[in-house]
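Supplementary material to the annual report.
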Amino acid sequence: MDSPEILKNIIRRERKARKMAEQWLEKKSLELYLANEQLKGMNESLEEKILARTKEIEASKEALLVEKDKAEAATRAKSEFLSNMSHEIRTPLNAIMGLTDLILQDSRDDVAVEYSSSIKYSAENLLHIINEILDFSKIEAGKITFEEIDFDLGKVCKGLEDTFRHKAEEKSLVFVIEQDRRIPQIVNGDPVKLNQILINLIGNAFKFTDEGFVRVSLKWEKQEGKHFDLLVRVEDSGIGIPKAKQGDIFQTFTQANNSTTRLYGGTGLGLAITRKLVELQRGKIWLESEEGVGTSFSFRIPMREGIPIETKEIANNKRKEASLKDLKVLVVEDIAVNRFLMKQILKRKQIRGDFAVNGREAIEILSEQTYDLVLMDLHMPEIDGWKATEIIRSQDSPVLNHEVPIIALTADAFEETKSKVLKAGMDGFLPKPVDIHQLYDTLIDLFAD
Amino acid sequence: MKGIVFTEFLEMVEDKFGFETADNIVSQASLPSEGIYTAVGTYDHMEMVQLVSNLSQESQMEIPTLLQAFGHHLFSRFAAGYGHFFEGVPNAFTFLSKLESYIHIEVKKLYPDAELPRFDIQFLDDQRLEMVYHSDRGFADFAEGLLNGCIEHFDENIEIMRTNLDGSKKVRFVLTQHA
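Predicted assembly:
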């Protein structure tokens, strides 16, 4: 056995080691404790800072909300201004375009016809520009809505062919629309917006192409179930877009070249609108172009198969035009030149037209005589079209026939107006400038049977 | 009870009474810790009661005497091991008056589970400090030993007068400073 002295030495060393360990441990725990305290303090000050920052953020959020309200009010005011301006411009355009149409139909003087054609072309251009500006302001104000209705895509293509055939002949361009046979005849989507997109792109193609072709191809790409992607490519052999400009060609007010505006005209809004119309339908638009070779714009929008409907062939309108003869129509319109225009339009179809200069006069006339139809302007002094309709439809008014069909005629270009008109108890809606053929068609539809 | 009280106690027994006595008092007791202590641990104060009572039997010395002697010894060990408590402290009264307001608080920081006795401390006048000890442990003798150790550490002429108010659970000490 080891001597007690040795064991004592060993114990002493062990004990010393233990004490050193304990001291070390205490030192470390104190350090840990202090570090913890510091962290706690930092945490608290952080929390205080966060609280202060949160307050700041809340305050700036409120300030931002105020700014946002201001900006929104400004946008609303702008959009209201634009829609008012549009209304103000459309009203005289109605007379210009309508009367020009009448000259074109009546005149046997070649010079007059030639001048009138130019006037018509310019007026149409002006209308197009107004429409673009209005569309753009609607998109900007987030006021645009998309329909989901069944429609015949073939008819849209046919309409485009009709619209651009003349232009193609004029410029001696080959114009074709090719349609993938797999595309169902009836599709579900927004036909008006699709048409607008196509007219914009095809219109551009014609504008910038002087020889060669404009080719439109529609392709079908299967998606889940009844869904598919409509892939459209509008290709031309025109002047092309320089590489450097291709990136921002879809931006507002951008054209490939400042001289483009001088040379080819346009608002620079067309492609910005087109892009928005595609993107708001969850689609995508892109372009490929080579200067001097041509440009192709392509877009893809999701669509759905529609339900094929029994297409009852609409009877030949010409046959039924006879039914318009001797129709008795009251035109309510405050602007003299528009009354004059309407008088000429009605006279042509031997329709009997009487005139009232505002809603009040219309009610007086309707209380003495009965009519087959009322063509009602909406914006008028004294009693406007809305109020007049309300009075006509009211059983308490002295009007003889409360059920007389009323068609609104207005330079308001908003889609909401259309549904508002129907809700107000009117039977139809025609936008100004009045398209003579559209007016006749509406009347024929109303009185065909 | 803090482990350092146990480790210092056993070391004192080894020093003063020998290894055999130390081994005996541990072996004779039935201790949950088996007599294995570390300064940074915490143990049931009943173990100390057993150890002291065993030592009393072994050494034929009264328990209060043993506790007083141990307290006295332990204070010197504290002074050696925890020098920072003594920095800038000129005398016993200053040190003792900081007991509740500083030292116990510092101990609690490191050992949140430490159950320390409570002292109500007040100066009766410039020369007299009253300290009333409260503890269910009834270790007033041990406390008295510590006080003596403190007085010796500062090498002052201070007299302690003790009055038991509730056995050894509540005891009043009046320390009187003599020139």
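Chain B touches chain A through seven residues (CB under 8 Å).
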